[in-house]
Each structure stands twice: as structure tokens, then as C-alpha cells.
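Task: fold both queries, return C-alpha cells.
Query 1:
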Amino acid sequence: MDPITLGIIVAIALIVLMAIGTPIAFALGGVSLLALLYDRGLSELTYFGETFFDRIAEFGFVAIPMFILMGAAVASSPTGRDLYRSLDLWMGKLPGGLAVSNIGACSIFAALSGSSPATCAAIGKMGIPEMRKRGYPDGVAAGCIAAGGTLGILIPPSVTMIIYGISTETSIGRLFIAGVVPGFMLAGLFMIWTMIACKRAGGYSNPMAESAERLKQTVKQNVDSNMKALVRVLPFLGVVAGILFALYGGVATPSEAAGVGAFLCLALAILIYRMWQLGPLKLIMRDSLRESVMIMLIIATAEVFAYALSSMFITQTVAAAIANLEVNRWVLMGVINLFLLVAGFFLPPVAVIVMTAPILLPIILAANFDPYWFAVILTINLEIGLITPPVGLNLFIIKGIAPDISLRNILMGSLPYALCMVLGILLLCLFPGIALWLPNLIMG
């Protein structure tokens, strides 16, 4: 059987398994095992086990559970509530000020936690009911939270960037810093659209501004309360800044920086928010362990899947076919973007990266594209998948927070933000320096 036909059969088998609800790691591992047994026989069982364990035995992967623990400590504390209060005070007078402050809170919280679902849940539980109470349309209230949560996989420190760096053997520090400007650019685009949408719907401002008398009576109390909330958040932001400085300055490896960051965030959560009880600490450890095991299983089985495709010459055949396309390199980039976009519709970011990055990187380099620039493009494509059906994880998180908002309203409210991400990709294609200027300035 020729490699292309075999590859199509493998792809169909994988899609069928995932469509019937098989966990991604087990679907990848099962298809890989059957393909290897068919192609090579029982002797391949030895290589299956060796490939599985060798991949996750790399020391660099220690950074993943540590960053997840760091994020879980932040997500399980009232940090999101404090961020929300602080930003609401400063941005409340803008058109759609509360929605804009929610996007700001999502951006910062996503960077602290590194988890899109955690960001949607933490900020959405407070922000969505408050926005609806103040008259915001359901679509705007749901869409701004769903979109804001996606920024966690782009703004550093990002677990997906770590996985990309390990999968492609590129500098994780440089990847982190490449995501800074594009991340805040996307946040800015989200805020601009939110203000436009709210202005068209009549404008929604902080109720404090509705009555001058009420403003005089309450402003001091609100300023004091929100300044205290901001002071509680600043140490966590300091930890993130310290991690980035350690990585960019060559002071520590990603694993070392992640370990120190996890310890400090856990200690801050205990000291600042008085989380002395065993229950909250047990919850943090449980969530960290669960997500770490899930990600590591996906990485290990994706490596076996890549080995299976390579051993059957599927990867080489597809890569050669794409590389031999006599088309403009931007047409090639368009095809790759479309492929990543469709993959993001069905698979979580981690799975897409570990399955496709090693295959796509040689093609990207052959077309004379920068691998760090491409990492940002890839990540934004995966962000779009988080707020678009059929999987759209963030959509279902929002539905769980506000079950009385229809899934159609949530989707329609999120789609303009997906278009903002497409605009972000176009801007990066036109001006690659958006992603590359800061890494080149800092790291040469």
C-alpha cells in the first residue's frame, strides 16, 4: 500500500475514534499501535514502549507541570476577582468599559494561569452576570470572555510555547518574548471591537458614572477597595516578570524558572489569600496533576504517532509533496494556515502542536519563514479553534457559566473576535516585525 493511501486510512481511523468520544491520547496511541503492527509486525511493540517513555523522559518537560502548578495556584485563589475589580475602576468610563475591563482582566489572568478554561471560568463567573445586569447584550458579555481567555496560550509564560519549543528544538525564551507584542496587539483589537460593538448598541458605562451625586459618595470607597485588590495582585505579576527576566537574561533554564515560579505563586496564594486549609491545597494539586498527566500522555502518544507515520514514510511523502508545490511561498503559508485552522477546530492546541510542528518546521524553513514568527501564527490559529465549533472549548465553558445564554448567542458573540484574530494573522504576515522586533532587540 502506498504511503498516501495508508496515511488517509490512518487519518480516517483517528477521526472516527475521536468522533465517538475516545480521549485524544488513547486515540493517538491506539491508531499508532495498530498501524505499526500492520506495517512492521509484533517486533514493533518494543519500539512503541521505548518511544513512548523516551519522549516524556526529557528534562525540559519538567517545565510543563511546574507552569501548570503555578497557574493552578493563581486560578484557585481570588486573584481573578481582584484583577476584575481593579480594571473595572480604571476602564469603567470607556464605551463598553466593563466589557473592556473584562478583556484586560482575561489578558493578565491568562498570562498568570496559562490556562484558557481557567481564565474563562475565573473571570466569567464574575464578569458575565455583572455585564448582563448592567444591560450588556448577551453576545458581547459571552464573546469578550471567551475571546479574552484564549490569550493565555500566546502571552507568556505559555505552556503551548514550551511544547512548541521542545518539539522543534527552538529557544523557549525567544518564543516567549515573540508572543508578547502579538498578544497585547490581539488584546487591543479585542478591546477596540468591544468598544465599537457597545457604542453601536447604545454604549454601556460603569453605573458609577450615571449619577454625579452617587459618584461623589462612592468613588473614594471604590478607589480604596480596588487599590487594595491591585496591591494583592502585584506580587503575582512580579513573579511572572521575574520568570521572564530569568529566561531572557540566561539566568535560569525554563524548568528551573518554572519550578521557582510555581513555588512562589503557591506561597503567595497561601500568604495573601490565607489559603491555609488542606482542601484548597489539595484541589490545586489535584487539578495540576490531572492536567499535567493529560498533556504528557498526549505528548507521548503523539510522539509514537509521529514515529509510526515516519516509519511508514507517510510524513516524508506528504512533506515532499508540499515542498515540491511550485507556488508562491505566501500561497503555501495560506494552505498551512487553513490546515492549522481546521485542525484547531477539532483538536486542542497541545495535540496540534506535537503532531504538526515537527512536520511543518522543515517546510517553513525551506520557504524562508522565521520559525519564531511561525510559532505565533500557529498559536493564533489555535486560539481561533478555542472559540469556534465543533469543539470550541471556551464556548462550552461559557455555556456552563451562563446556561441561560443560548449556544448560538455565545457563538455569534465570539465570531467577531475570531475575525480580529484573522486580522492579527494578516498584520503579522504584512509586518513580521510585530513578532520579531522584540526578540531581536533583547536577544540579538
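Query 1 returned. Query 2:
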Amino acid sequence: MQALHTDKAPAAVGPYSQAIEANGFIFASGQLPIDPATNAFAEGGVKEQTRQSLTNARNVLASAGVDLSHVVKTTVFLSDMENFAAMNEVYAEFFKEPYPARSAFAVKALPKGALVEVECIAVK
């Protein structure tokens, strides 16, 4: 088991890793829409936040030598299901067929008031 880290995604701010690689799998922690260059949320709405969250996920996976085509499962957390269509539109820009399995659901709240958070599992 190996912890992964990149400066191209927000640093872990608690007792967790950006990702863990184990037995050929990469388990990436949920990515908030924080721009690591500014340490602030991407400006705009759910589309911009989804784009930043997925960019962060892509950068974390790159630290393991894989890209989004290696993702087998994602979980998308939304602050409001009304944002599903807009999130899905941006999500489709990042993933191609065969699409990873996915769960998407609304939660009561996300850290720092985010509109979206994305976690993923990839395989080498």
C-alpha cells in the first residue's frame, strides 16, 4: 500500500491521503473544487466546480501514472440534485466510453459549502 500525493491537487487537510494505491487499484479521496494554485473554489457555479473537482481527480490519478480512462467507479456528491444535469454535462467532457460505473446523490452539505465533490477508483 502506498500513499500518493501531488501538488496539482488540494493537499489533504486531515488524517487522510489524496489517494492510496493498493494491489493495482488507486482509491482517490473525494476532490472538492479547490484550485490548488489559489486554495479557493473555482469561480462560477456547479459546472465550474465540477470541472475543477474532476481536474483535481485527474491530477491525483496522474501521480500514480494513470489517467481518467483507468477509472472504474466514481461517486459524485451534490449539494442539490437540481445541479445534476449541469454536473453531468461537464462530467461527460472528462469520461469516454466505456464509462465508469457511477453513483451520484445529494447530501445535506459538503465541506466549505461546495456544490460538488467527486471521488474515484481506478485500476492500473
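Both queries returned. Flag for query 2: Residues 2-123 form a domain with the 60s Ribosomal Protein L30; Chain: A; fold (CATH 3.30.1330.40).
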